[in-house]
Write a structure and sequence with these properties.
Blueprint lengths: L14 E5 L10 H9 L3 E3 L10 H14 L7 E6 L1 H12 L5 E7 L7 H6 L3 H11 L7 H4 L9 E7 L5 H5 L11 H4 L6 E5 L10 H13 L13
Parallel strand pairs: 1-2, 1-3, 3-4, 4-5, 5-6
Helix pairs in contact: 2-3
Length: 232
């Protein structure tokens, strides 16, 4: 793992909360956690029952106590994957975070997903993804949350455009990561945006993506040098 110069290491009390996506666990952020700890951050990587409750309940009953537990961290950053970004937006809609620093979202369905539109009526999708999965369509909760407020810290979004599921891709208009189109990850008010040739599931595992997370948390901008190779 590349070293981080002492001059750009975060202050000792800076923390990063990692918020996984629908149906995932804390282990989906294991590599990100290790990289950020190496950079000097205190990292909080707790699971939450993403398939058991609606997004509003997840924001209120799981994310809110987690945020409150961080106390007086000098700066509090967040990295989210997929639906984790929507849980965070739902929380921030009603809760100011004075010490919020930077936020990186990986493949967030910020304008919903056509894949959810297509699959929501099916028994298998409802059973596997629970009530939160029913809220991720193109006319559902993500669209109602509005733009990213300037007072909520700097937001960087990383979208993937490599799909490993030809069937799902055929249901998604335009470049996509197999779950969400690149266009629907964007959010008005974001500070920076980058597309990487990685699929939805594996975004948090790819070294090139982790490097971009580290760069944004450090500087508020992604890097455009040495584009990553496409997934096989």
């Amino acid at each position: 793992m590349p070293s981080t110069p002492a001059s750009v290491r975060p202050a000792p009390r800076e923390k990063v909360i990692l918020l996984h996506g629908l149906g995932r666990t804390r282990w989906s952020f294991w590599r990100v956690e290790q990289a950020l700890r190496h950079d000097g951050y205190a990292v909080v990587n707790h699971p939450y029952p993403s398939r058991a409750h609606p997004i509003e309940v997840l924001a209120r009953d799981y994310l809110a106590p987690l945020m409150a537990a961080q106390g007086t961290a000098a700066r509090l950053h967040l990295v989210t994957h997929s639906m984790g970004g929507i849980v965070l937006r739902c929380y921030l809609r009603d809760h100011p975070v004075p010490n919020l620093g930077r936020v990186v979202m990986l493949a967030p369905p910020n304008a919903g997903s056509e894949l959810a539109d297509r699959l929501k009526p099916t028994w298998l999708y409802r059973t596997v993804n629970g009530p939160a999965g029913q809220q991720l369509g193109t006319q559902d909760l993500p669209r109602a949350l509005g733009p990213w407020p300037a007072c909520r810290g700097e937001l960087g979004i990383i979208a993937g455009d490599r799909s490993l599921n030809p069937l799902f891709s055929s249901w998604l208009p335009g470049p996509c990561d197999g779950k969400v189109t690149v266009a629907r990850t964007r959010l008005a008010g974001m500070a920076d945006f980058i597309v990487v040739p990685v699929s939805h599931t594996w975004l948090a595992w790819r070294p090139a993506v982790i490097s971009q997370i580290r760069a944004f948390l450090r500087s508020g901008r992604f890097t455009r040098e040495n584009p990553p190779p496409r997934e096989p």
